[in-house]
Amino acid sequence: MSNNPSSMPNTSRRTILRHGCFGLAGLALSDLVGRSLAADEPSSSTIPGPHFSPRAKRVIFLFMHGGPSHIDTFDYKPDLVTHNGKPLPFDKPRIQFAQTGNLLSSPWKFQQYGQSGTWVSDLFPHVAQHVDDITFIHSIHGSNEAHGGALLKIHTGSDTFVRPSMGAWISYGLGSQNANLPSFVTINPTLGHGGVRNFGSAFLPPIHQATRLGSSGVSMKTAQIENLVPPQSMSDDLQRAQLDLMQSMTHMHAEAQGRTIDNDLQARIDSFQLAFRMQAEAPNLMDLSQETAETLALYGINEGPTDNYGRQCLIARRLSESGVRFVQVSHAYWDQHSELKEQHGSLAMQVDQPIAGLMADLKRRGLLDDTLVIWGGEFGRTPTAQGNNGRDHNPHAFTWWMAGGGVRQGFHYGESDEFGFYSVIDKVHVHDLHATLLHLLGIDHERLTYRYGGRDFRLTDIAGNVVHSILA
Amino acid sequence: MIRARALFCPVVQRLNIIVAWATILILAGTFTGPIASGDEAIDFFEERIRPVLIEKCYSCHSIMSETAEAGLLVDSRAGLLNGGDSGPAIVIGDAETSLIMDALQHQTLQMPPDQRLSNEIIQDFAKWIDQGMADPRVLDTSETNPIGNSSPSKGLSVDPVESQTHWAFQVLQRPPVPEFSVGDTMAESIRNPIDAFVVAQLQKQDWLPATIADKPTLIRRATFDLTGLPPTSEEVSDFLNDSTPDAYSRVIDRLLASPRYGQRWGRHWLDLVRYADSNGADENHSMPVAWRYRDWVVGAINKDRPYDDFLVEQLAGDLLVNDQCSEKRIRELLVATGMLVIGPKMLAEQDKAKMRIDIVDEQIDTITRTALGLTVACARCHDHKFDPISNKDYYAVAGIFASTKTMANEDFVSQWLERPLPSQAIDAARIAYQPQIDAKRAERDTLVAAARQQVIDADPSSVPTAEIEQHFSEDAKLRIAKANEELAELEKGMPAHEMAMAVDEAKPTDLPIHIRGNHLRTADSATSRGTIERLRHAVPMKPIPADASGRLQFAQWLTDPQHPLTARVAVNRIWMWHFGQPLMRSPSNFGLRGERPTNQDLLDWLASEWCKEGYSMKWLHRLIMTSHTYQMTSTTDTYQDQDPDNLYLWRQNRRRLEIEPLRDAILAVGNGLDEQFDGPGVDLQTPRRTIYMTINRAALFDMFSTFDYVDPASHIEQRPVTTVPNQALMLMNHPLVHAQANKLAGDLLAIQQDDSKRLTALWQIVYQRDPTESEHQHLIDYLDRAEKIVNSSSQAHDSRRAAWSSLIRTAIAASEFCYVE
């Protein structure tokens, strides 16, 4: 199936394209009012996927902006301790972001956790409790040594051209599970380093761009989706009355011209009904007062440093649960060219408990089975020191982890070299990650295409191999 | 589902028989090496070699694979002999020096990459090569070259016959206008030649064009079309009351003379050239003077700058500056080249060579899609897969832009080029200002000299050294520091040159082909700067002087009246902005994979007439808008089933307003639009026309992306029109809608005496018509109902005004406001 459905009588091809993805094509208003499409019910035949049975139905992407250090978190390198202060015994990359000196051992101790005996540093004691649910990929490599390029690469697969983001591709491929909600939401994204391009739809229909909740630095207590809340003076009754009026005005105008209401106008009326329901449903999802004190505590909400990311994670769970396909939860700013110990320490403190809380909460709700949780940054950091207490960007090797929806448990894949500078065994490129992610969602990355400017495009461009070894 | 595999090498289907035969002949001709004769050698190949190649190598190295990895194809003998990026894979008769053996043995190369083949298989290959490499496969992939190839370019992948005959590559011919006799029933629908072309096509279907729309619809359509704003009530009533035959054409003239016309059509152009006020990409630096280019576009369009000049100035304005140019003209010419500089750039890319070629690529992509309607940038890594644009062509054009200075420096975070604009006034002000600085400096120097003398006088043995200042008296130090501060302050106050984003010439450089687009692996010889070979046959390009980038020659070539693409592409776009749909429906792809124009004769006639008329856009607007075709109703009641996309132009198209006219119209109906022109971008709260809102590539206003203006970092060929709930949310809840509706409600209540008059006034303002009788009653009922709802809620204040405000908001949200019929 491609994005060019054959023409239907009396309906232009473009009309279907325009409305299809929100489940409007061919549905009468009466079908839509008060009805939210059940999960797993693709709402329209124009959705290109899934191509086979999915292992995951939704994704929560915990994005650590700035580049958390893999060798200080989940990629244990005992050799760094013995070689501390010595020169790197092999060449540094041709292009480096900054100059670095000799090897620098990790300021943190590592311990083994779980049945899998996974080594985790003291930065993530809470996440460490879940290692037996997680697949760690230690051999990821990208191609850009600067934040902007690396972010774009991770999010869109290209650091050269304007391309749709992975969330947009997934929205395009799978549609929404809930007609009252957007299929792609990004919570507190950065507006720098590519900004909207990292969650935009580029040439895909704009419906697939992320709906943005807050932005980097905005408190979750006040973050809102734009235009979702009517001004205070506006009661539900009044808005309902306006919608009725609008519908009758459209009919009267058509009648006066001796015409019928065509598909375009009908779809437009429908979209107002949907908006009205979205307005009712979405703020509810952001209202955490409906959660128990125990759940709030689990995420570290109302507890100092963990409060904000805890809220982000809990809102992410609520959105996922309600059918949002792809939720990105961003956290900043893991860019420690200096003061690695102090800054990484406080950043990890902010996310460790909330992430562990999210894992536990998803698990006990039975959601982890078909929700894919992904953790990672745009690159890792160099094992060599920048100044005397920092690390530079390292796109040549870094660690991401995945849990839930279809990945192996307590598993490690790929290796970086003995110091963590280069990915060496079972290397996984960003394109391979994207291919694997789509695969878990039931999408063949080679078949998820969109025609633009005379050719067909994919998230994985002309590359990408599914990493079958990590599939459960 | 189209198989992905076929997508990226959609090749084989078109393998031309002639080429295939030629290939075999060439093969036979170059056939030299010794070969183990007879069937035995062939059998060995079939049994031991071919299955391994198919199973282990074809997925990456065959005509059917998505990519020819490293430029190597192993599905033919010639492919192996020609080899890939690293050279020939096989030397016949000499396995030892054959590169393929190195790779199979996992030495410097490792193939297959995942697992080394067994020794037995590797020995088979050695034997096969040593014995003469018998290979009966006839498909010669290196000559037909469908996948893209390594350096140097070996010829085009596209069918040469098809590319010769492709309609859009033919020199423009003016087709004869279809003739209709006076008595013809169709004659009534023919006001100018446009209609003759349209009606001639409709006649073949036995269809009739729609009738002319009523006057309120026409003036609303024309006004939005040319100015992006609704007509005022006075303009509507003037038109309705004017029963002279040329009433409509006078409306067109008035609109074309309005400076708002440039704001509307300038915005269209800005879409094509990815205008923005910030860099986006990796480092989203503000581009604080990008607006000068935006204002230049608006001004040039208002002045009806002929399209050829308009293009040349943007590509090479800086090269047109000469002694005869006025200051104003020089400023314009420099600012125009901002088009080349405003693209998104990876400023923090540390591989600066990559940054340079990426910037060139971005320029080529924008220029060629905009002006030529071709995706030339596809040929960066390999020959274009569908169009006759070779890898070599790409680097011929790239050389021109590599010889152009776009960047001011290549620092850690690099900076684009801004050039000072000449200004006698500022120069004079600077000269007038300079004495103040000089005086202050002299004053400071006097203080320093005095202080030095004081030290020397106190101790005549002390020699003036660099450290002498340390011995100054505290009082002298204070006075000198104060003087230095004042000097710095004065220097800051020096009237600054005005800057514009603009290019300059750089050292002329011919670029070698970058093998597979990799700037670190280039061909040995450079490609002379120039243009696309296939199109140069139709229009020759003037030679590029050795000391010039070639931008001017490229621009002149582009705008040559004989050019098959430039005028067609532009006319097609102008048509699109009048009808919502272009005549040729892939407006930035006139290549072999583009659409066919629905009425090629019409497109060609318009393009050739336009060229003859000196590329005046206003002339073209007049011609199009005075046609019957433009003035038809947008009724969908006749041939919608047969032609839902209106390919035959049997009606006008209903069009949704883009965000710019939509926001502007909301401001206009509330009488809150500030019509100030030009200047730096402003925020969304400023009630100026939307074209002046800051376009931040990394944080675009949600209102824009919600209404389909999604990506200001790339050329936009046509705004999509989607219908999504977020648009409804904006129209229901956005403070702008509420504020303007409330304002208009206040005005209506103050000015008009009764609800009936108010309704009529409102309907005139928002829809340019009176309410019908049934509407009238319905709306009055609504006001009462809304007032009751407002009263029942706790915050009831001025409930009648709230009811009116609610009605106005609904009127704004309704289709009739957001669409043009």
Question: What's the gist of this structure?
Answer:
The complex is a heterodimer of chains A (472) and B (821). Chain A has 472 residues and is α/β, with parallel strands linked by helices. Chain A has helices at residues 13-20, 29-32, 78-82, 147-156, 166-174, 236-256, 263-285, 293-298, 307-321, 340-364, 430-440; strands spanning 58-65, 110-113, 118-121, 134-141, 184-187, 211-213, 326-332, 371-377, 380-386, 390-394, 398-404, 411-413, 415-416, 423-425, 428-429, 450-452, 455-457.
Write the layout of secondary structure elements.
The complex is a heterodimer of chains A (472) and B (821).
Chain A: H1 13-20, H2 29-32, E1 58-65, H3 78-82, E2 110-113, E3 118-121, E4 134-141, H4 147-156, H5 166-174, E5 184-187, E6 211-213, H6 236-256, H7 263-285, H8 293-298, H9 307-321, E7 326-332, H10 340-364, E8 371-377, E9 380-386, E10 390-394, E11 398-404, E12 411-413, E13 415-416, E14 423-425, E15 428-429, H11 430-440, E16 450-452, E17 455-457
Parallel strand pairs in A: 1-7, 1-8, 4-12, 4-15, 5-6, 5-7
Antiparallel strand pairs in A: 2-3, 4-11, 8-11, 9-10, 13-14, 16-17
Chain B: H1 4-8, H2 17-29, H3 38-61, H4 77-82, H5 99-104, H6 119-130, H7 141-144, H8 160-165, H9 193-205, H10 215-227, H11 233-241, H12 247-257, H13 260-272, H14 291-302, H15 307-320, H16 327-336, H17 352-372, H18 391-402, E1 404-405, E2 418-421, H19 424-458, H20 474-492, E3 498-501, E4 504-505, E5 511-514, E6 522-527, H21 533-536, H22 551-558, H23 566-579, H24 600-612, H25 617-625, H26 628-631, E7 655-656, H27 659-669, H28 702-706, H29 725-733, H30 735-751, H31 755-767, H32 773-792, H33 799-813, H34 815-818, E8 819-820
Antiparallel strand pairs in B: 1-4, 2-3, 5-6, 7-8
Helix pairs in contact in B: 3-6, 10-11, 10-12, 12-25, 13-14, 15-16, 15-22, 17-18, 19-20, 23-24, 23-25, 30-33, 32-33
